[in-house]
Amino acid sequence: MSKADAPVxxxxxxxxxxxxxxxxxxxxxxxxxxxxxxxxRATSLDKATASRLLRSLAQYSFVLKDGNDRYRLGPxxxxxxxxxxxxxxxxxxxxxxxxxxxADTGETASFFVPHGxxxxxxxxxxxxxxVSHFLRVGDTLPIDRGASGRVVRAFAAGRPPDAxxxxxxxxxxxxxxxxxxxxxxxxxxxxxxxxxxxxxTCTRYSSPDHLHKVQAAIQAASQEIESLFAMP
Length: 232
Fold this sequence. Notes:
Helix content: 40-55%
Number of strands: 8
Strand order of the largest sheet: 5-4-3-8-7-6
Strand content: 15-25%
Largest sheet: 6 strands, antiparallel
Number of domains: 2
Number of helices: 8
């Protein structure tokens, strides 16, 4: 049998770089962060090859390298979970809460995760307002402006001892017509999962009654989501 006739799964036709990259991702799936030497050892790759593949994966946000030179899975994984497998991952876990928030308030509900110096939208649900904030899964926005941006930046280190200040509100920071309320969501180990947000127009959010409704909805949803990630 010639190579042209060989089944796709035969070793002779495997794409080695892709296989090695997948092995790297699998090696990182259980760990909060690994040194290059640990990744190379776990995948039976030499350090030069592992480093080259990690750089390629990092270019597309599948891997992140922190300030301690440790590698972990990046936010692009969450995008794939949201678009390719709606039953797994953070995006799927938060989606029902987003749908309820959007239905209850009429506003756009979204969930952002840290993405280097940006924030990445991994889940979104739209309300019934004629004028609303349009977002797409995969959109990246700054962390120095906007309620959810400030949440991602302020709570990157995890849940603070003091619970005050968790709820953030922005009015016209990123867009003169856009307002938002956001709060952090933490896992059972008090690590930041992401920022939960409800966004709409400054005109609507200028109403104290509507703002209170939005704040109550987002606080209830954050507690609901955190309960999903609580240790049994």
